[in-house]
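Sample A.
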Amino acid sequence: WQWESLEAMGIPPEEIPHFTNPAFWLHYFPPIGMSDLKKMGLHVDWRRSFITTEINPYYDSFVKWQFSLLRKKGKVVFGTRPTIYSIKDKQPCADHDRSSGEGVLPQEYTLIKMELQHPYPPVLKELEHKKVILPAATLRPETMYGQTNFWVLPDGTYGVYEVNDKEVFVCSPRSALNMAYQQLSRIPNQVCKIMDVKGCDLLGACV
């Protein structure tokens, strides 16, 4: 993949292994770019060119100073945003980091919290002191106003997961894992499972 891309650019095979070093890219391509721009007749004062990474200590110091000052003034803060995230690598997974799935973006759902009413089904008796939520994810929340029932798979296995000190969610393991990385778990980025329940155990319950 990356090897083939570099080969297609005319880079000799014996030089390709050097591209495992990120700094090699910075020294290899700029001269080629400059040469091509000169051939196009572009007039540039190349004395003013510089590399904008930490390999350039002057630029690196400038960026550190800039962001330190902005943070001190409260103009930049730590926060979260929707992104494709790799649980394995524990970091955002941008387009070019993926072997497949380029162009895939986060899909926004609206989570409807369907609260289970007392008395709870016998299988959930030990959770009487907590709010039991059957979360429903939808792309069209405006359609929920006319809802008359809540469907579960009778032979399906659902998990009961702690979301915070007062609420638990009944949902699939995959949903719980995804929500754990979206601040919907008692312990961030970690699934807090209490028990398993069968869909048939929830039939007839009131929400």
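Sample B, a different protein:
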Amino acid sequence: MNQRDQVSLDILARLKKRANEFFIQIDDVAITHLTFSPEFISAVEAKQAAQQDAERARYFVEQAVQDKKSTIVRAQGEAVSAELIGKAMNPAYLELRRVETAKHIAEILAVSNNLSLIHISEPTRLLSISYAVFCLKKKKKKK
């Protein structure tokens, strides 16, 4: 039974009791139009708005939890990847990369008459990688 039926039965019972004092018999009551006070309407709207805000907050919390899980999984994957790369970086591989890079720079310098190689930094050791920075610079034209 919904609230409208309950209200209708309650009104019918009260009307029958009151009308019975005047020897009037009431068989049925039909509620055709029901109005509420502005305060009641405001309270209902405020309750609905609060429920929607709570639902929205639950959604944002769930989204944040999922974002956190995603970030953790991504970071774990990157950590495993970095570990595998680190294990693959043995001295022979690093020396091969140095030779390949030097060969590439030499090829560029060989085909270009207006570039020169400039050494920028001293060799440095970072973890298991040793490196130095070089730069290609255009030569000034002689007048």
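Observation for Sample B: The mean pLDDT is 80.
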